[in-house]
């Protein structure tokens, strides 16, 4: 079976309309690393289902699906309260403030959770951003 993303079958964005993924912060993380060694999968989207918990990791590197990521800051883990599809380039807001856009997904810990990599402008951890438990997360 062919993967339409790997085969380059999509010439236009196939996501005509979609609802945002919503969630709440369950764990605030602290840590910044220069050589993390994440590998983003080539697929630009992932279905994030209600009640799943996933990790948000920020980078300031110019990356896209299929790239490697080294310079990162850990933001936190969030629980999905309203599932949907998260796509490369979707804005990511925490507590109503945009922290960046979806850069891609690393499956190092899957099926336990995805590492959702967010491209932002300021390499600050969740602790340094003063994130709090139960803050709202919105993707898309």
Overview of the molecule:
It is a single chain. The protein is mostly beta strands. It has one domain. 0% of the residues lie in helices and 45% in strands. It has no helices and 12 strands. It has strands spanning 21-28, 32-33, 38-39, 45-48, 53-59, 68-69, 72-82, 84-87, 91-94, 97-106, 115-119, 136-139. The strands form 3 sheets. Strands 1-7-5-11-10-9-12 form a 7-stranded mixed β-barrel. Strands 3-6 form a two-stranded antiparallel ribbon. A hairpin with an 8-residue loop joins strand 10 (97-106) and strand 11 (115-119). It is globular. 33% of the residues are buried. The mean pLDDT is 94. Residues 15-139 form the DUF6917 domain. This is DUF6917 domain-containing protein. Pfam families: DUF6917.
Provide a count of the helices.
0
Q: Would you count the extended β strands for me? A: 12
Sum up the overall morphology in one term: globular
> Helicity level, as a percent range?
under 10%
Uncertain residue ranges = none
Strand content: over 45%
Could you describe the largest sheet, including whether it forms a barrel?
Answer: 7 strands, mixed, barrel
- Mean pLDDT score: 94
**Termini Cα gap:** 29 Å
| Helix/strand/pairing category | mainly beta
Q: What are the secondary-structure elements, in order, as H or E?
A: EEEEEEEEEEEE
- Strand neighbour order, sheet with most strands: 1-7-5-11-10-9-12
Radius of gyration: 14 Å
Domain count: the total is 1
Topology of helices and strands:
Layout: E1 21-28, E2 32-33, E3 38-39, E4 45-48, E5 53-59, E6 68-69, E7 72-82, E8 84-87, E9 91-94, E10 97-106, E11 115-119, E12 136-139
Parallel strand pairs: 5-11
Antiparallel strand pairs: 1-7, 1-12, 2-7, 3-6, 4-8, 5-7, 9-10, 9-12, 10-11
